[in-house]
Every structure is written in C-alpha cells, then in structure tokens.
Amino acid sequence: MSVLVYTESEKGSLKKIAFEVASYGKAVADQLGTTLTAIAINADDTSELGNYGVDKVLKVTQSDLETFNAKAYAAAIQQATEKEGTKVVVLSSSVNSKYLAPLLAINLNAGYASNVLEAPSSTSPFVVKRTAFTNKAYEMFQINTEVKLLGVSKNTFGLHENKADATPEDFSISLPELGVHVESVDKASNKVSIADAEIVVSAGRGLKGPENWGMVEELADVLGAATACSKPVSDLGWRPHGEHVGQTGKPVASNLYIAIGISGAIQHLAGINASKVKVVINTDPEAPFFKAADYGVVGDAFVVVPQLIEKLKAFKAQQ
Q: Per residue in 171-183, is it b (16+ CB within 10 Å) or e — as a string?
C-alpha cells in the first residue's frame, strides 16, 4: 500500500525533478501513514533517493526502454503500481510525464490531477491544490477514484531531505505492443534544456535580428541558463522552434526568467507565469510584461545586457 513515485532519469542519471517528486511522495506517505516506493527506469545509481524519503526502489533495467515511449513507460508504472498495491502514484509535470499520465490514468482507472502545488490538504476526501487556467488561478481538486494520480508542478514543492534506505529491488516488466519504435534521439550537446533549467534567458524581436543573439547566449552561459525565445522570433526563423516558450510553445517554470526585448503578449505570459522570479528588460515602459514582472529595467538591451554580463562575470570572479 505504499505511495509510488516515478523518478525520471536521463542517460543513467536521475534528474532534479526526481528528488522533488520523491520529496512530495514522502509528504503524502507520511499523511497516509505508509511507506514510499520509487520506480526508476534505466537509472544507474538510485541511492540518493534515500536522502528524500524513498524506502524502496524498483529498478527497471531494459534496453528496450532506453528511449522514452509513453505507452511503454505507462505500462511499467502500471505494473509497479499493481505489484505494490499502490493507491497514490506521483509523477512530475514534465513533458514526458504529461504524455504518459493520461495513458496511465486510463490503465489504472485513476483520477488525475496535473500541476499540483502542495501536499494534500485532506486525504479523506482526497483534495490537492493545483494551478488552473494557465496558472492564472488555483483550484482545490478532489479525487474520488480508488487510485489517485498526481503530477507535481516543477520547482514548487522543493527538495526536502528525509533519510531512508532506498533499498534497490530488480523489477522486470512485460511490454505491450508499442506500434512505434524510436530508432535514435539527437539532442543538442553542451546546452541546458528549457525543461530542466533553473534559469531561462529569453529574447524577442527587440533584438532586431539573429545576428544579435550572441549576447543572449553569453548571458545564459554566465548564469548556467537555457536560452529561449518568443513565438515571433521562432516564426521568423531567427531561433529554433524548440526554444519557443509560451502558451503555444514550451511551458517554463524556472526559478528565474529573464525576458529581453519581449513585449509580453498574453500567450507568452501564460507559458512562463509559473516562473518564480521574472525580470524584464525593454525600452518600452508601457510593455505589458512589466505588469507581470518582479523586476523591470526600462532601457536598451544592447546597453543593459552587456553591462549585466560584465557585472555578473566580476561577481563570479570574486567567489
């Protein structure tokens, strides 16, 4: 009857979101008076999960799961759920987890709450707080099904250390007929992905052209950040569509979001509203983005950004 968490990994290493999901799962397990089990797929070292309350780790090591497939991963988590007799399953709200969650909900006949922010306010009835209307509102969401499926919003619950054993147990699954097989996955190297980034540096048409993106990339390098852009920029071909963030692009829930030369159309704001701290640099003091920003700089990006880079480099040199 333990709570089950799916801990994501990439190239054998657990992602930070895995530890946040484990922290959340531990809070739920404590409320229910039960233990916490994690399922890890092709993760090399899972011992660190013990720092966040995981009592047991079901380790799945199968070559046919090396690349993500929503149907296959949903089957793996379903089989782990049934093995453990779990009534509460916790995922992240990553792109991959949002793909597999509906399949898993159907397989388990489970009620699904995405973008969950806090541990349940009540377990009988089972009620969680989640964001709604593209992060413009909060909703107290009641799940009445026997099995509950929760998707934890990134960078909201945080990491909470709570020592446990994280005892590993080998677990083999039987895969369904997938229909689609991934031959290979090509990813940009030496870059922070938007999905995993703690800091995102984004720019818009205010940069006037792709030839001026060097300072955006330099600022991102100094901060260890991912680079992103507004929809018009990707539509113009200045930047890859994979960097487009907003309601019609990739959602961002970073700790820090820096917007350079982006006016702040409502579709863009809807996609980045979950970020904790928003900084805006724009020449137009009436730009809509300033109303949503925590900090704003009215100024020319071609003057402000190089000075910001210089100051950050000087600050880092003193550390």
A: bebeeeeeeeeee
Q: What's the rounded Cα separation, in Å, for the pair 28 and 90?
A: 9
Amino acid identity of residue 55, one-letter, is D
DSSP β-bridge partners for residue 6: 39
Question: What token pair was written down for 295?
Answer: 């900090």
Contacts of 269 (CB under 8 A, 6+ apart): 246, 288, 289, 292
pTM: 0.83
Instruction: For residue 288, give the DSSP letter.
Output: T
Is residue 309 within 8 A of residue 219, CB to CB? The reply is yes
Tell me the per-residue pLDDT of 197-247, one tens digit each, with 9 for 90 and over: 889 999 999 999 999 999 999 999 999 999 999 999 999 999 998 899 988
Residue 287 CA, distance from chain mean position: 28
Q: Where are the alpha helices (DSSP H) in 185-241?
A: 214-223, 231-235
Report helix, strand or coil for 117. Answer: coil
Whose tokens are 């070292």? That residue is 45
List Cα–Cα distances, 91 to 4, 238, 286, in angstroms. 9, 35, 40
Hey, what domains does the chain have and what are their CATH numbers?
3-170 (3.40.50.620), 199-317 (3.40.50.1220)
